Structures are given as C-alpha cells and as structure tokens.
C-alpha cells in the first residue's frame, strides 16, 4: 500500500493526461471526464481590472474594496497575497475563487485557462482559516472518511487507500497519522498539524488550483515554515497555489515565488517576491529601493513592506505624539519624514508606471491566450448510500469516543430519569394521600 502511495508521489508529472497528474489522479479525473486524452489540465489563472464593490446599507451606500487589480498565477508557482489587515486579501481570494458575499459585486475579467470559468469544487479547492475537524478521529481516519465521502464508488478500495496514504505522505503527516485530532478534553495533534490535515482534505480530490486564507495564522515560526514549505512542494508538483499570508518570517518569505502586495484594495506591488527588495539581475533594481523606500539591511523584508503600507502606523504615531510618549530623533529612514498614507500613494503611483506593472499586463494577455482544459469534479462523486453509510459510521465512532458528547450525556439522562422516576416513589395507591396538604388549610378546618 505504501509502495503504491510512494509511486504516486514519484510519478507525478508523468501522467498521460497532462503535466502534474499522477496515475491515481488520472484515474480520478478519467472517471469524471470519460475521455481518452484531455490535454493539459494545469490551472492558469488571470485577473484583469478586477474591482469589487460592496453595498454597505439598505440606503445603497457602496464602497470599493478592491480597485483595478491585474495579476496572474501559473502552475508550479506559489503566490502570496500580503497586506495590512483590511487591505482586501480575503476579498481577492474570494473574488478569484467565486465565493464573494451576496452584497459584493465584481467587475473585470477572471479567466481560468483562457476561459471564464465557474470555479467549483474539484477544479479549485479553498482552505479556510478555521480547521473544522472531528476531534475524536485520528488523522488517517479523518482523511479516509473524507475519501469515502467524495471519491467515486467505482474506484477500488485499494486505490482509495493508496490515495489517502499518498496524501498523508505529501502533507508530511506520517508521524501523527494514528494520533487523534484532539478536542477540549483529548490531547491531540499540534496546530500546525491540524492546518496540514485541513489542507490534506482539500488536496485529496487533486485540485489543480489551491486557495488558502491565512494558512499560517496562529502558528509558531517552525510550524508556519513547515506549512509554507508543504504548500511550495504542492506548487512544485504542478499545482497553482495562492495564499494570503499575514506577517511571514523571513524564512517563510523566501519560499514565495510571486508576491501580491495590497493596501486599501489597490496594488502596491506584484512580481517576483525577491525583486521587491533586491535586484534579481544586473538590469533591474529592487522595487522598494527604486520607489524611495529601500529595505534596511537588518530588517525582515515582509516587516518592511507592511511598515511602509500599513496606515495604522500614522494613528499610532499621532497617539504617541499626543501623549508625549514618543521622542522623535533624527533618522535616515524615509518613513519618518512622511506619513504612511503618503508612502502608500507614492508606491501605488510608482507601481502603476513600473516595468513590473507592464510585465504583468503583458503576461496576463499572453496567458489568457493559452486555452487549456478546465477540470470540474462537480461535487462528491460517491453515491447517496455510500455517503449515508460513511456519515452514520463516522458519527457512531465519534459519539462512542467523545466523553462529553456521549458518556456524559448518558450519565445526565440516567440521573434525570432517576429524579423524575422517584417523584412517585412510595406514593401508595390511596387517592386522598395527595390531598393531605389541603386538609391542613384553615378553609378545610372550618
Ligand atoms: N461583503 C462585505 N460587505 C461589507 N464590507 C466588506 C465585505 N467584504 C469585505 N468588506 C470590507 O472590505 C475590507 C477588506 O476586507 P478583507 O477581509 O478582504 O481584508 P483582509 O485584508 O483579508 O483583512 P484581514 O487580514 O484582517 O483578514 C474590510 O474593510 C471589510 O470590512
């Protein structure tokens, strides 16, 4: 079984359906598409002049959350969306993955493999910030039940098992595969491992495009590095990976291929992550240095970018100035001479006319011309009976293992039953016994 799993990892990129598909994934897609050869299934995503407007009240007040964004994500690359809180990272992910709220309206063009596509389950996977996992199940059981619920009935049990094992290996979860996830009374796997289980559940269906909202939030630096490294490995396997990341360490930042930097819903920078702070060849210069905000030698690049574009720093400075807690000393830092709002305006303007912006527009036009296959798994492929059986089994196992859910409830029900049952204990069979208190009332005595 493990041999089969390892084979899948090793043989990726050699599948006959196109680059990045292993024999097992191929079986999965062939079941769905029922075609002999469906060509290149890599996901090339482009967005042009993307604007998202939200309606704020019933009076029809509107606000632009994103304004005129243009960019692309290619197979084999890991694109990081960065920006201060409220800059529009999650909204951009939602807009690209077709999950915008009902009060949000999108204008502009989003193309997948050169076509307007409804990005549904299977084509693209979306990993949210929260890990919705069942605490009493082990990692292997969690992934296995998910496989039973979603994979086609026609797929043999050994193939399903191999797919589960290969997913465990791909996410580096072998060491904790038989450990429970954990809950309030059950010590389980770590936060980083939980995040990797959530990603494992999404890559089970072998999506070609993976969106992740803050996959490293709440993790310590080592766990964040491990999760990001795993995402990079998934990208290197031919997938297109786009993730919003809040405040990466310098080690994590080095793992990004492309960086999309947002502030107030506008693009501050889009291009090679390293080109933002260093010259990547003799003909180029670091973007931030050219724009007048060079990254100091000992500063983490991502901290520097966020320092430049987070307008909350203006409020902090004003508050500290007002309370006389800040002594301003002479410094060479250009950010001390202007407000962050001015720095953001300068960077927005500089990016708009930079070679990075022109290169991105050119690349979007080039990529949009490549017409690839859009794979659409269209939801679970398991039959109704298979799903019912799996859900019932999973629920029974969860109840029997969950002390709070099952055993504590059972004890409470028994206690309540005894309490209600003993109200009538030894009451006898004489009817007037129940009228005893009435006999003692003054009215009755008269
Ligand atoms: N559907 C909506 N209705 C009203 N306002 C919205 C909606 N979606 C987003 N916004 C607003 O748009 C702005 C950007 O939100 P978004 O969640 O995309 O930011 P973010 O960069 O992901 O922030 P964080 O890092 O804190 O998650 C916020 O001010 C938010 O309140």
Automatic annotation (TrEMBL):
Main location per the UniProt record: membrane
SMART domains assigned: AAA
GO cellular component terms, A-Z: membrane
Boundaries of every ABC transporter domain copy: 45-289
Localization: Membrane
Region (Disordered), start-end ranges: 1-20
Biological processes annotated in GO: response to salt stress
Tree of life domain: Eukaryota
Keyword Transmembrane: yes
Residue ranges with Basic and acidic residues bias: 1-13
PANTHER family the record matches: ABC TRANSPORTER G FAMILY MEMBER 11
Protein name, as recorded: ABC transporter domain-containing protein
